[in-house]
Amino acid sequence: MQTIQANNYPIHFNEKAYEALNLHLKVNKYSNVFIIVDSNTNEYCLPQFLPYLETDLTIEIIEFEAGEENKNIETCVQIWNVLTELGADRKSLVINLGGGVVTDLGGFVASTFKRGVDFIHIPTTLLSMVDASVGGKNGVDLGNLKNQIGVINVPTMVLIDTHYLETVPQNEMRSGLAEMLKHGLIYDKIYWEQFLDLKAIDFADFDELIYRSVVIKNEIVSQDPTEKNIRKSLNFGHTLGHAIESYFLENQNKTTLLHGEAIAVGMILESYISWHKNLINEEEFLQIKTTIKSIFDDISFNDNDIDPILELLIHDKKNEYGSIQFALIEGIGKIKIDQLVENELIIKAFNDYKS
Hints:
The protein is α/β, with parallel strands linked by helices. The chain has two domains: 4-167, 3-Layer(aba) Sandwich (Rossmann fold), CATH 3.40.50; 170-354, Dehydroquinate synthase-like - alpha domain (Dehydroquinate synthase-like, alpha domain), CATH 1.20.1090.10. It has helices spanning 14-27, 39-44, 46-49, 73-85, 100-112, 126-132, 170-187, 189-193, 206-223, 238-250, 259-276, 282-295, 303-313, 343-354, and strands at residues 4-6, 9-13, 33-38, 59-64, 93-98, 118-123, 137-142, 145-152, 157-160, 325-329, 335-340. The strands form three sheets. A seven-stranded mixed beta sheet has the order 1-2-9-6-5-3-4. β1 (4-6) and β2 form a beta hairpin. α11 packs antiparallel against α12 (282-295) and α11 packs across α14. The chain is globular and about 60 Å long. Residues 62-174 form the 3-dehydroquinate synthase N-terminal domain.
């Protein structure tokens, strides 16, 4: 697969990725290398990665406990302290080896340590390959509020090796699939239609689907790196999805959802809203709802859940001037940003989902 040129950094794939990494280490005079992993990638991915690394530089491994609940400023402080203790300086390189939590948090740590050191993302989950590692968004959660603290700062490069997916559980693979479905719904109807029957997909060609998803994300981000316009389209399913994810994260009576599981619900709800705003027709809505529900288990909501979820929308970082901004689809493969939606319609969407 050809290297994709993003805004000021390349995205390399599979074998080419390690060639590019080792050449980069050879020509840049780094003082040392720090590899940030979580407890899962330390066990399952780091042993695969280290044999590819060709360098005489000192390599230090920094591990933190896996899980969205650890994507916070406290973990960052711990890692900044470890970097300091191990002698990291402005010429250090940080390599983030892991899923979306690792790339989000590791990118933020590197972007802020000594006002910024070079970092490279090596995503190891489907979600991080097609979404989290591409586009330069780095950050952490504030309490249960998703991605409230962060920066937009691009990595030196992104290396995507799909062999790491062999270490990923099935529910994590489905989680990443949600973002791929989103890319089709907002940008490429033909790409979306490839997922209408998962049984018909030849998973020997799955690398090509991943590649297309990365191309879509990159094309959108390259037009609008700081999310003033078209990049807002990537928020489809996320306005409600993030609120649902946050609510389930903070509520002890709920099972914590994976990001993609929450976004899958968000896409169904926001497709319902798109239908009732006459942006898509009923046939398109039912196709979206049926397809997503065929892949993801239903999430249970009771009447007491809805109001707290609506309250969490107030904190959505996409809001402007106190108004909740939605990105809705305008026909499959197209998007309409900055849409205001009244609470009554959101409640109807939840009722439809529950029915």
